[in-house]
């Protein structure tokens, strides 16, 4: 065990953050944007525990995942301490993502939940990665998911052609809903289709492509993993790995051209995934059509008016094994991934629920914040403090006389409290709302200095108590003194009127 | 290692919570109340990591504390896994309280921070306790603290009588600020002085009392621990333990009378802690006066108009060793502690900062929620969903014609999006704000059924698309149809006007 540290040496754990007021305001602003966008798109907030049983993650990703996580145990439980000493593995893990929790929660109450069920959450997540630019060990993540479909449940897994077509349309609608919500979050933060692109693909289309390349069966899953690394590995390695998986060596160039050619999804997207004009792609792929679920998705994205953000990009397959259909990533300049998601139709069942198609995405705060800063879209610290309500509405000061000094705290308390319950019956309660009030902590009685402090606090109004019963008011935003004095008994109502105007 | 579980058996860890929409709304409502009260009292939000180095907690509370915590380690770090296997102790711990993080953060930037510095935070905390009514292993806690004083820093620890008097007054002001903020949070949730009491004491006064009882030096710290358990242990054990610590056996009855006699703090509280009228208390204590810092606190609480909530109760000493002056608890019927706090003037220095007086409190969500439920003050699930903004402003439906069906998604998207950037220059942007919009996922084309669904969603307005270019509107709150039809091009503005009225 390492030597005990001197208190002065203890810092926040590497890869975590101390949020002083400006940083906390930035987090609050981001969380509020995510939440506001989710709510107005009809998603309802949920959340789960910060830590889960380790096995919850192993169910989805295998035991190996535990080596990527922060593991946890109760120091009070002799059994758990003993387990950890013997195995080096703990019974709990800090959540690295939300989907397993969501699947567990949905599975536990599936019968009583609406169909579809639209859930979002935003909160802290944890990964045992080496911290670097864009990656922290504790970070925020926003999740929005649509679980189930808007067609009767008995059709969700029916095999007849009519049901399958209906379900493909329904999946496209749900996919488009989560993509539209994701796009809107980018838009409200000031981003545009030049700054970020939604790169969309479908694992179903990719399976058709791989079939044509003679990569089939379980090799397709491994091919997804190779394609997911396409831009990170060199050409020869890509070629070698694909051929090992059975790919026709003559078609690798065709595949590579396709992977290199994201195409904007326009209102009337060509039905051909690989149209004849891509003559150089080789016969293996020419003339392939998009899957019906994919053309339906493109059409619905058109109805939502967001095709200018959206590109078809078959290099997007997502690393995780559980995606089944649509997959997408939000990519900014420099190929930075801001968000990612897709359809995971088998996962709810894996967690003990009924077979339930589902789609969702996750967006982290770290890459997004770097992007907003790079683009000059992150509000300044001062602006952020104002945006999250931390600029006072009123700054109260005394003119320095003993009567005014004595009136200060009672007035501050009264303005902060708003109407007393006894006043609520007879008064317009909106004229006695609680106000955000501050006062100076400095010893000075110099009114000029105190007014300067009021202005620095970004208060809207300065109230100068002139004696035990009256005050004068300065509107600091308009830099204007109110005419005459206001009785202390009336000041609350007058301020509320002015703030509501 | 236990057998791997079937996915169906995995539940949330014991003592943690799954928050489905109604529970998540309850959490949001509570967090919003805490936050809103903190902000209007001039506190600024901060936060730290969810886990800290274990030693951070050992600095304050000794190594023994680790047995009460959830401990954590990186599954990716061979060193950390090895440490855990060898020692059964992990390098990190899930935070059980905020004060050590706050002290560490303040100490790291003390020179550049305002004096006093008013910080709040609310978030998840963790304890390895056995779950029971009122106690969970993951819970929410609100913290509000005032660090530093409103007198010049060189006086904070000066020894001359004048500075000491000035500092005592300043501490009383800061103590009263955090107590006023705490009281206001109880008031906004509908509680009143009949339902909860702020029980206040001072460790300084208790030291004077213990001096008179011949309990002195280090025995006083142990006496605090005995008094903290006064209501949990039996009379004889209390007497035995106090006498062991040196207490005059003849004065135990006097002490017990004092511990049993909380007194409301009135505007003009008697300066005598033990006035002559408590004749039965024995000579040892009669005539004792309150410490100047305590009378100053009572006076300031009067200025804030909250003495009706406040009681002097010398049985409140708080278990934790680090409190130095004022201590207080919020006690509801059945002696349930809703919140607790006090002055901890030595802690910032212990964490490597300059000597800095500080005071704060923490309120958890579990006991508070039970109390609000018992009192009928917790809003219903439906009310909560409305209070946190999860009732839609608009529910859009089609009259079932193909043109209306085709217009639905584009209209929903447009209303959710608000004004386009191009519109913002020429339009009053308040008339094109983004709206919270929902629509049906049911297959029915029966307008009556769809209107019923709209009402069940608690939407304010139902918009019925009548053809490709117009709609009718029903105000569901007033149960009134708007006259005539509205062009789809105008509906956004009309809805915004109506919602703002």
List the SSEs and their pairings.
2 copies of one chain form a homodimer.
Chain A: H1 21-40, E1 44-45, E2 51-53, H2 54-61, E3 70-74, H3 78-87, E4 92-94, H4 99-109, E5 117-126, E6 138-147, H5 161-188, E7 196-202, H6 203-212, H7 219-228, H8 235-244, H9 252-259, E8 263-264, H10 292-303, E9 310-312, E10 326-332, E11 336-343, H11 347-350, E12 358-364, H12 365-374, H13 381-387, E13 394-398, H14 402-417, H15 421-424, E14 437-439, H16 447-456, E15 461-465, E16 470-475, E17 480-481, E18 486-487, H17 488-500
Parallel strand pairs in A: 1-5, 7-9, 13-14, 13-15
Antiparallel strand pairs in A: 2-4, 3-4, 5-6, 6-12, 7-10, 8-9, 10-11, 11-12, 15-16, 16-17, 16-18
Helix pairs in contact in A: 1-5, 1-13, 5-10
Note down, in words, how this protein is organized.
Chain A is of the alpha+beta class. Helix content of chain A is 38%, strand content 18%. In chain A, the strands form three sheets. The first copy, chain A, has a nine-stranded mixed β-sheet. The radius of gyration of chain A is 29 Å and the shape is elongated. The N and C termini of chain A lie far apart (63 Å). At the A-B interface, helix 1, strand 1, strand 2, helix 2 and strand 3 of A face helix 1, strand 1, strand 2, helix 2 and strand 3 of B.
